[in-house]
Amino acid sequence: MATADELTFHEFEEATNLLAETPDAATTRIDQLTPQGHVAVTVGSDIGYGAEDEVEESDKTALLQDKQQPGVWTFAYYQSFFDVDTSQVLDRIKGSLLPRPGHNFVQHHLRNRPDLYGPFWICATLAFVLAVTGNLTLVLAQRRDPSIHYSPQFHKVTVAGIAIYCYAWLVPLALWGFLRWRQGIRERMGPYTFLETVCIYGYSLFVFIPMVVLWLIPVPWLQWIFGALALALSAAGLVFTLWPVVREDTKLVATALLVAVVLLHALLALGCKLYFFQSLPPEHMAPGPQTVSLPTHAPLPPNLPLSTALS
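Request: output the structure for the sequence above.
Response:
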């Protein structure tokens, strides 16, 4: 009579022979003993090796779909727009400073992940630098001419902040709305999202920060050269980024839109130059010594000294 070990060996030998005859077969469970002490072998030719992985992936997908997205009025919704590191911000700043044809800022730098961190701090820094350099210009003018009486103009901080933030939000909003409207007319044209448009404009303003600092040089023609160079770099970045979107439209609409974008950018730079770096207003000039001249035929008062009358 055969022992249990011999029966087990015999079952394994049968399983080996069965697998040799059907190479495509697979065993799913070979270590579980049946109640009678035999080894259970399952043979099948259509069993996939990645079935368990597919089940796990489907479970993860179902969990992600069941997870509710944060609402618009929650802090978690806006937290994702500030989830960027320093290397990403520096890469996007470098991309805005070095525009070139065929190099799309959205595709090569944003990569479908627009952020509000960079545009927010770029606008804040530009507004602060504008106000400070505008006041420093008057301080330097007072040092060159001691007759100038200067008082700090703190209202320039408010004016700069309102002007910069309104431009960085209202102009992209108008541009995005116009492109969305044109998308209904020209279905092939796909505009950027609103956040991508805000991100484009926000990073395009970075080049104005060093331009404003260089405007402290009291040479008018050099200030205009710095302004024209910064405007050319910033406007070129906008044109190269918007061209893939507007080129599907008619030639007239595409040209008019890009010209309007450049003109609005030029008006921003010109307004900053004329308002924050204007010549000293007359009320800040010290009044000069006033002299009283008497007509030659007028009689002299009796108590007026002769030296005063002759002068």
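Residues 1-45 form one domain.
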